[in-house]
## 1
Amino acid sequence: MMLTFRRILENGAKNFYRGGAVSFATVLIMTVTLIIIGSLLFLSAILSNTLASIQDKVDVNVYFVTSASENDIMGVKNKLEQLPEVKSVEYTSRDQALAEFRERHSNDQLTLQALDELGTNPLGASLAIKAKNPSQYEGIVQFLSDEPALSVGGSSIIDRINYYQNKTVIDRLTNALRTTEQAGLVIVLLFAIASIVIVLASMRLAIYTARDEIGVMRLMGASNMYIRGPFIVAAMISGLLAAIITLVLFYPVAWYVGSSFSGWLGGFNLFDYYISHFPLVFLIIVGSGILLGAVASFVAVRRYLKI
Amino acid sequence: MIYFDKVTKEYRDGTPALEDVTLSISPKEFVSIVGHSGAGKTTLLKMLLAEEKPTDGSVFFESVDIHTLPKSALHHYRRKIGTVFQDFRLIPNKTAYENIAFAMEAAGRPDDEIESDVPYILELVNLGDKAHHFPSQLSGGEQQRVAIGRAIINQPDVIVADEPTGNLDPVNTYEIIEIMKKINELGTTVILTTHNKGVVDAMGKRVITMDKGRVIRDDQNGHYIL
């Protein structure tokens, strides 16, 4: 049994090697498919990382009018902190806001000049509220709008609440993630089918080329597995080779994307992701490659190799 | 040992290749099947090799109807039969040694047996010195001897040879027939189809004559009569 298995593996390797250009074409198309599968994997990682980091950054910022007193604001802060859904409330005074603004625009002389000419501090104090769960912001915003203590002398001391702005961004990003994954799946499927068809055609050629040998094997009393096995092994070798090529190609690509676009992607480094998730990526790419070869060749020997 | 029971074979267009053939072959017999081209000799052998199914009737090998064997068991049956063809059917990119070893590998024989048996068989067919020649470097007679070596390497019960001398000159033909006789004397049943009158007459063994898909003569000590 082991002997037969070993000979099937050996003959499979020989079939692959003798296939020459046909084997090369098979490996090439499989590589393309695997690159697409891998790219989708990375894209999905990038998007979900961005989503997570934005979700983490999301808070409700309540900006107060410049005339609001610190006491009133502190009163609001205390009330908010008593709400069960609130995780934290951070106070930024008018002076802090101004300092932060200057810091942010330290390279922008024009803006700073305009600020200096203004004489007074145009920025209001603000409270940054973090909820325990993103879905609870709606309730917190509702609470703020309904609270009567927030108005002094009939006019609200709240200038604006930036919640709705963030909400659209999160919704859009979630949508983008879902759409990308769906579209990616369709593309992967199309390429998987294309590569299966090409593997099928190349296997047909290989079986045709080996028809004399197959005939002799049959007459010598070789078992079906012994005759068919090598073709399946050869296709699986193609898949494995394509997977290795893909993994090697991803190395410089991930490095380039990681070093060049990391800032742009909100600090997400694709290279670090590739290295830290290598076992998972390896498993998916190598698994897909071998599976692709096995499925295509299994269909091919069933259809073209009559026993 | 082999028994054809009222075997009829019609091809799809309705032309009969075999009609109501009944014959039996005993162990260790040497049987020549003769007849014109298209008489049904090759079809008869294909039935025996389970390459084609009869339209009607049965073929028994050691009291098993071989056409009822499942596909998965067929290769076990085929290992009991060694085959030799007019066109040799050697694998061109393998040497004489490898061609014979290949048959043993396909039958699942271990490496040490292959290493000891192949040289022995090559000696038996007088090719000890040409073990590492490719088929293209061998003469027709030598190629056929490799094919015979390959057919007997797995110690089959029966050797089926379909016009093994059809492509050979008289000297090589003589040699091939001598080897066939030797194999038969060592206890293997031999079934041979041929056009060669000289071969059949010199043999003095059983001759089955076929014509238009029927057995028209079956002589124990026969001659080539058509």
## 2
Amino acid sequence: MDGRRPSQIRNINTRLGLNRNAEGSCYIEHGNTKVLCAVYGPYEGKASKRLENRCSIVCQYSATTFSGLERKNRPRGDRKSTEISRLLEKAFESVILTDSFPRSQIDIFCEVIQGDGSNLAACINAISLALADAGIPMKGIASAVTCGVIEGKPIVDLTSREETDLLPRVTLATISGRDEVVLVELQNRLHIDHLNTVMETAKSTCADVYECLAVVAQQHIRACAPILG
Amino acid sequence: MSYEVSGPPLVSPWMMLSMSEARTDLDDAKIVIPGHSVSDAPQHFMRGHGTYIREGEIVSTVSGAVNQLNRLLMVKPIKQRYSGEVGDVVVGRVVEVQAKRWKVDVNSRLHSNLPLGSVLLPGGDFRRKDVEDEEKMSEFLKNGELICAEVQQVQHDGTLMIHTRNNKYGKLRQGILIKVPPHLIKKSKVHFHTLPYGMAIIIGCNGCVWVTPALPETFEEEQHVQISDYQKVSQEVRLAMVRVAACVRLLKDYSISIYLNSLTTCYEMSQPYEIKELYEQETSSRLAYLIAAKLLHEIQENQ
């Protein structure tokens, strides 16, 4: 709808290590979708959340009141954000090597500053980079993309105008652009015949997004090394 | 009061420094991110910390630099939360008083333990710790008080056991605490320094830098008289302390490692400026560039 090819993603723009107080932080733009993410920890968290054999991951997704098409009154804590928070927690529990930090807690905060479609995918990409910045052991960098179907053809990286239609959309997240899937979310109904093509397209796009994230992360880590370390 | 509003800099300060020729010491191929392959021949290498095996490849799990020790391949994270090593000097805050031990927050993954047995109580080095001492624990160290200690032991789950069984360590009273990322602290033999500007500094390995008028051991003699007395500090010393604190923050912002040499260099080079100017972007970036250049030059000369 905005002049892109069906398999073309929007421009990705990132900035890492912006938040000095957090262990890792990231700002990412997918076109007009802008997400800010901060990772705190691992630290000795609340006793109620403590697990004896691995670390617990607490994630909070929130969107600013001015992020969507209509002004929202509750920036966080509503049903949709809570659902997304839980989804992110589950996804990153399988990405982070939680066994290496028993009895600790990792906090992930994600704020959508401007939501122009594919918010969940942008959040996953932002969190991946922030975790890499924080030096937390992971299986790899997770990358995600939202993929929809129009007239039987898959289109990637939906904007909010494209999301307002009642078209099926799949959000897929993979590790290191490989076959390992950590999160799938489907909204609206998808015809079974389209499933394979959508998943294939999403997977290959995830690999493309991963390439972008990997370059950024490596550059940043290099810049982070202390002078005369 | 006036405010100066400025947008975020186009190039972040530490990027500016790293892009300059100052960073030829790092090899691009040796920096990996999670999921990057370190080696594709696991039969020839052993995998060390920060790696795992995926489909016949040794793959990194953290973002950092690859280290090779004979046949052992490991990845050392560049930026990470403090994980203690035995012998490190740490500065931390007491968060909990428990039976026979204090819990101390040293910016590590878990709170560290300071057992009652490993503190030096006033009066006599080798006296027995009895029930009376246990009752007086919160009198000696309260919640929220800062201490300086040495790491004695790292337990298998990452908890640190610390001790203050020396005159150098113990409660910290007057000073400025600055928290920096722990990867910027350069390990050295001495972490207690008395600077020639009439004040002292403790560079904790956990990223806590303590700027103080005098080290604990030098004013220990007067302590016997009155323990909770605060001394008056002259204005010159206070100014020097604030300047050193500003220097530490400047080195932190431009990711220059913090040790005695870099600090004194920074202090000397900051003399032409006022202290408040050190927080301005223009001054600080220029200063940081000069400091980095000078330090690199010194290192090259030594080689």
